[in-house]
Amino acid sequence: MKNILFIFMLTFLLNSCKNRQPEIIFKKYNETAELVAQQNHENNRMKFKLIQSKQLDMNEVFKPFKDDLAYFSEENYQKLKPLILEKDIPSLQKSIKAGSLTYEKLTLFYLYRIRKFESDSTKSLNAIIALNADVLKEAREKDKNAKDISEFSIYGMPILLKDNIDTKEMPTTAGAIALEKNLTKTDAFIVEKLKENGALILGKVNLSEWAYFFCSGCPLGYSAIGGQTLNPYGRKVFETGGSSAGSGVAVAANYAVAAIGTETSGSITSPSSLNSVVGLKPTIGVLSRTGIAPISSTLDTPGPMTKNVIDNAILLNAIKGFDEKDNASKKLSGDYLQNGFRNNFTGKKVGVLKSLLSDSIYANTIKELKKAGAEILEITPPEISFDGFITLLNIDMKHDLPKYLKNNADKSLNVKNVKDVITFNKKDSLLRAPYGQQLFKGIVKDTTTLEQLEIVKQHLNSEGKKYLQALEAENLDAILSINNYHSGIAAVAKYPTLTIPMGYKESGEPISLTFIGVPFSERRLLEIGYAFEQLTKVRKMPKNYQ
To answer: Which residues form the Amidase domain (predicted)?
Structure first.
């Protein structure tokens, strides 16, 4: 009997070893030739000084998943692809309810896919900063309730967060070495909401350091922690947009079901547009900012970034809610997806910017909308003054960052304000601030008083509303822009924007249509955006990430 048991155990072990996949090792490579080639790029922001992170060891990031991934093969991955790749949340939930997929397999698929591309020096995108070590364990727990879940639920869906959003499981760095050990004791309010609704926090993504209010003229998507984020539609060819670069890139490359970004002025709209994903910058007050490293309490907001409009509405529903700790938070009722979306343009009236009609893709899109039944009104907004915008950001960050560091950050951090960060970076500027920290220095030098700041805020808000006055004067559902061309204006007016893939230039670079609406018109924007998405269906996966 003992011999039989021994033979059985030996056979089991041999089969286990046979099924175990070779370990994937992340290796640094010599990027000198690539960097030399980048100096010929026509865009100065694309003349990179480095690509790979000097701080991150991706082998350590993936260490918690070593055993699970050892028994997840390329064959397993290929079998799951038709069920997962590019699928919307309702489709994923249906597959799980039918038993052909589980939340654990879904999570394993994304972990495998991230490792597959990020370990390949010819395809790595440097989008990931951290992964939640417990995410597979949490996914297994979610599987216990899989049969009772609505197809429009965020439950069990792996979500990535921009790394300026607090999570207890992982540090919140804002891409800065000064915050490398920032393990917060609490989750951001929107992360609490995600967890309450059953979402899986898959990990943290790269960003333009300090949400791109740090260095001047530096590459979009660069941070000292994460290195240089790259665009999957053209690695080292096209910009990623920013500051939510990792969020846009990760969603485009199918590294997760969806991601959350943040925006002060264009930081959701820009990377969503340039990575062919759907990005919503909601009205200030729809979503809480508590537990998010700030630039400006006047303009900051998080927002969902997804592959399609339905998922965007589902994610927005999951993270909305009144937060008494956020002075701008509003008590809002309603479901952004209730009763679905009407898939037509009947009765929709949109403003078209005459100045943009020289863009052939935009002009052709407007023709398609007109043909589909939309009422088109060509508009030429009045000229406005944008004086004081940098002052607004300077003074807000001068006051808002110390509050975040005091109330939310790890108490062991040695930085308490912008000046401390500058001093910290100077001790090793080649590593910590290779592109300089000119904007941070500008914050320290700015002597604008809070009383003067109020005048600046009122001026900018008034000018933004003046530019977009046709929305209310002509009773428009939206004004149509391109990419983040008018994000700054919408930001100071405190109007929401929704950007949706519109097509691709001859070079292959994505271009998007951006809908600007009146405050708290997110539901209307999502509905008209859904109709546009269904009419055009232009989004396609990046060629080398299929």
So the answer is: 121-480
